Design the sequence.
């Protein structure tokens, strides 16, 4: 009788959630705080433990000499992280900084067939921001476009112009799009509201910053078009204290 | 322990035997052929010369690092002195989904940027490709696959007499129709400062060189011997020239050193 009950339950669940065929992707975004709080080996090992397919990394240094993170002097973050995780790593410089570069990185389990670093609008009074746009070929042959960015922190006006620029820049892309990063904007902000008009937010509302006293959410993963994928799982990793931000991991299915 | 000593001695001997031979326009069975475009000046402007190292057996005989040690490639790059190559290409450096790409280790060991130029769009778990490595920060990496061929490469700000943004592509040409595909897809880029370094199948070489010159208005060079399956192929704008190619090896890693000059 008990076996019959279990078989019935299994049958009902199979009917309710038919097995979808498609590309399952595990996406991550993580602001590294220029490695101030942990070594790249520690961060790399953590990333590897999550087994993500694609990772957006912000505040990535390349061969800098910061006084605030002496242990990272000369370290090429993306090279160490790619080596540590066994993933492909690409780097996009936003600015020259402390004898090296400061910018964005993407790690991918799958080949990156093209990418570009695109400078975002800047009024000359604020730090130059950028986005890294990568086309990645999945094992089945489908190509997705994964975008990593780190938006302006000081003014909402500049942030809004950057959001509008990104949306416009990506509007004609035929592939499935993902936009991940540190948006420096709260969920209720006008900038994030604008994004949500055409993008699906793949994250929950848990706080992502500051890791020692979490009070706000400023990190996101978005997808577009919104109606072509299933969000299987998402979560802020609140136990990871390797930066002043928490990482976010979202798992999605893109049905064939 | 004796085994380790033997391997060390063997590596040492191989390192010592690392050689470089300037074959230039002739010699050692190799040949370099330029199609009939206006000749560049005889005098070399060394300030406008940049170098590419292309590692290959020219046999298209599988993953280059299947039988070769990637750490030797790292050592080759690390120990360059004088005018260093801008970019290093490894034909082939294949990728197996689920594994780490061979150049990943090089990236970790010597802090170089590395890219994978896959040879075709494929859903296969083993993807043939070429590895590209450079110390220059890359703001753009471009890949194209179609018509049974591929062409991928990165844009580098090259410090010549004036800083010049040059696109470095790699490809593998087996038929003239593949060139037509590339020409159609990348005509705008190829009409500017773009360099292609790759391989051409020996039995189609004359038609390919002819097509590049007459249909694409680019300067093409090939280098190799009739004993290999493919030849080295260098394609540059008419305002560039490749005057010679040096072949050499570091340990058991054969490579071709390609100096290219922007002369106009």
Sequence:
């Amino acid at each position: 009788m008990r076996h019959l009950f279990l078989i019935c339950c299994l049958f009902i669940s199979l009917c309710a959630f038919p097995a979808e065929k498609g590309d399952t992707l595990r996406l991550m975004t993580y602001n590294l705080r220029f490695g101030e709080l942990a070594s790249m080996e520690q961060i790399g090992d953590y990333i590897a433990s999550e087994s993500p397919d694609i990772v957006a990394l912000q505040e990535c240094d390349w061969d800098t000499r910061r006084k605030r993170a002496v242990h990272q002097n000369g370290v090429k973050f993306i090279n160490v992280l790619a080596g540590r995780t066994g993933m492909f790593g690409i780097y996009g410089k936003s600015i020259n900084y402390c004898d090296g570069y400061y910018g964005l990185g993407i790690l991918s389990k799958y080949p990156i067939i093209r990418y570009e670093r695109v400078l975002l609008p800047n009024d000359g009074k604020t730090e130059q921001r950028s986005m890294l746009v990568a086309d990645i070929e999945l094992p089945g042959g489908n190509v997705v476009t994964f975008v990593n960015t780190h938006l302006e922190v000081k003014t909402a006006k500049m942030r809004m112009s950057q959001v509008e620029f990104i949306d416009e820049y990506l509007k004609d892309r035929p592939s499935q799009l993902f936009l991940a990063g540190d948006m420096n904007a709260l969920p209720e902000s006008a900038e994030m509201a604008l994004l949500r008009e055409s993008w699906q937010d793949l994250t929950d509302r848990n706080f992502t910053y500051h890791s020692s006293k979490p009070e706000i959410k400023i990190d996101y993963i978005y997808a577009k078009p919104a109606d072509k994928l299933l969000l299987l799982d998402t979560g802020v990793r609140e136990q990871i204290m390797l930066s002043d931000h928490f990482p976010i991991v979202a798992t999605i299915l893109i049905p064939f | 322990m004796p085994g380790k000593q033997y391997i060390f001695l063997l590596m040492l001997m191989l390192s010592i035997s690392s050689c470089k031979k300037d074959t230039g326009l002739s010699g050692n069975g190799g040949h370099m052929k330029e199609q009939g475009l206006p000749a560049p000046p005889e005098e070399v402007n060394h300030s406008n010369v940049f170098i590419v190292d292309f590692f290959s057996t020219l046999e298209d005989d599988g993953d280059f690092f299947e039988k070769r040690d990637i750490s030797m490639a790292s050592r080759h790059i690390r120990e360059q002195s004088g005018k260093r190559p801008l970019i290093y290409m490894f034909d082939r450096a294949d990728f197996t989904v689920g594994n780490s790409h061979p150049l990943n280790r090089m990236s970790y060991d010597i802090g170089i940027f590395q890219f994978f130029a896959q040879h075709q769009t494929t859903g296969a778990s083993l993807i043939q490709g070429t590895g590209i490595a450079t110390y220059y920060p890359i703001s753009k990496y471009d890949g194209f696959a179609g018509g049974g061929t591929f062409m991928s490469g990165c844009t580098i700000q090259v410090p010549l007499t004036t800083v010049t943004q040059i696109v470095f592509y790699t490809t593998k040409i087996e038929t003239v129709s593949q060139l037509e595909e590339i020409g159609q897809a990348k005509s705008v880029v190829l009409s500017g400062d773009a360099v292609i370094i790759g391989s051409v199948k020996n039995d189609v070489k004359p038609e390919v060189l002819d097509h590049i010159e007459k249909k694409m208005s680019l300067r093409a060079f090939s280098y190799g011997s009739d004993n290999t399956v493919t030849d080295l192929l260098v394609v540059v704008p008419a305002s560039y020239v490749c005057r010679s190619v040096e072949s050499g090896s570091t340990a058991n890693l054969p490579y071709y050193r390609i100096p290219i000059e922007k002369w106009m």
